[in-house]
Amino acid sequence: MTAEIISTGAYVPEKTVTNDDLAKVMDTNDEWIRTRTGIGERHIADEEFPAEEKGFLLALGACRKAIENAEARPEGEKASFREKNDIDLVIVATSTPDFSFPATACRLQEALGLERAGAFDMSLACTGFIAALSVADAYIRSGVYKNILVVGVDVLSRLIDWSDRGTAVLFGDGAGAAILSASSGESGIIKTVLHSAGSGDKALYSKAMYFNEADKACMAMDGKRVYDFAVRKTPEVIREAAEAGKCEEIKYYILHQANIRIIEAVSKRLKEPMDKFPHNIERYGNTSGASIPIMLDELVREGKISRGDMLCFAGFGAGLAYGAVLLKY
């Protein structure tokens, strides 16, 4: 039994903040940001969302699209999934929930009308979606659940100090979702790998959860340390995951969208061409746990991924955590 991704969905706020917009409020410019990060704009959840609904509404939008796409698939391609009430579990990877509790996953379960589903959140920042996929894969392989909705959502604008150009230029808000279904076919997750390189508590952190929009804890980051860690560990964990399959058969390496320079460096270290490393960071910035599912959904919608394609996801970030998933789509 394998865990097959049968559908995806993504949702981002309408409002965009361009590099030129940031140049009006801080000492920076479009060329400086693009050269160092590859980012041109990012989506920000502002007044269009109520303060206590931002993460929930982004996640809800992504989930609805994933469910709609799953239900629209031909009957023979749905594996054990037939309609939304077949979803057994909702896992949300987020480090910026609207509430400390209840879990965002529980709010989604009720809003989506998933009568049978359990629900819980996970927090592993930018590696969160990888960790959630790993847990979902284990549940499905063990036979505990057959259909799991996995969501990556973050509202990092909540934690940004807009006077700090070292972090403010990097992050955006968004959500991505995928439905995993038990399958006895050839498609599915082949191997998951998850590691931590130490606490990294001074590399990328937010000291405490915010309690309201006016009294929030801003994030801080040692950019060089995070960059060095990502460039070194990401190729390692990809090679570890790819040992379960044939690396040369991988069509796309879908990396956490943190910085175009990191993606380029990983490409060089793996001696793989950049056209195998799709990226959309120029339009979304770093959306943390949402970046991999947003990128995946974009590739699916554009018809760039077909059934049977070998894919490798890799995430890295605060913790310092890192991981990879090898799968046949």
What would the keywords be for this entry?
329 residues, 25% strand, five-stranded mixed sheet, Peroxisomal Thiolase, Chain A, domain 1, alpha/beta, single chain, globular, four-stranded mixed sheet, 10 helices
What is CATH's topology name of the largest domain? Answer: Peroxisomal Thiolase, Chain A, domain 1
Whole-number count of domains: 2
The CATH superfamily of the largest domain bears the name Thiolase/Chalcone synthase
User: What's the total number of strands?
Assistant: 13
CATH architecture of the largest domain, by name, is: 3-Layer(aba) Sandwich
What is the radius of gyration?
18 Å
Distance N terminus to C terminus? 15 Å
Helix content: 25-40%
Largest sheet: 5 strands, mixed
Structural class: alpha/beta
Per DSSP, the total helix count is: 10
Quaternary class: single chain
Low-confidence stretches: none
CATH class of the largest domain: Alpha Beta
Strand order of the largest sheet: 1-7-6-4-5
- The secondary-structure element order is EEHHEHEHEHEHEEEEHEHHHEE
- Would you tell me the overall average pLDDT? 91
Describe the structure.
There is one protein chain. The protein is α/β, with parallel strands linked by helices. It has two domains: 2-185, Peroxisomal Thiolase, Chain A, domain 1 (3-Layer(aba) Sandwich), CATH 3.40.47.10; 189-328, 3-Layer(aba) Sandwich (Peroxisomal Thiolase, Chain A, domain 1). The chain has helices spanning 19-23, 30-37, 54-71, 104-111, 128-142, 165-168, 223-242, 260-270, 281-284, 291-301; strands at residues 2-11, 16-18, 41-43, 89-93, 118-122, 147-155, 173-183, 188-196, 204-206, 219-221, 250-255, 310-317, 321-328. A five-stranded mixed β-sheet has the order 1-7-6-4-5, with helices on both faces. It has a four-stranded mixed β-sheet with strand order 8-13-12-11, sandwiched between helices. It has a two-stranded antiparallel sheet with strand order 2-3. The radius of gyration is 18 Å and the shape is globular.
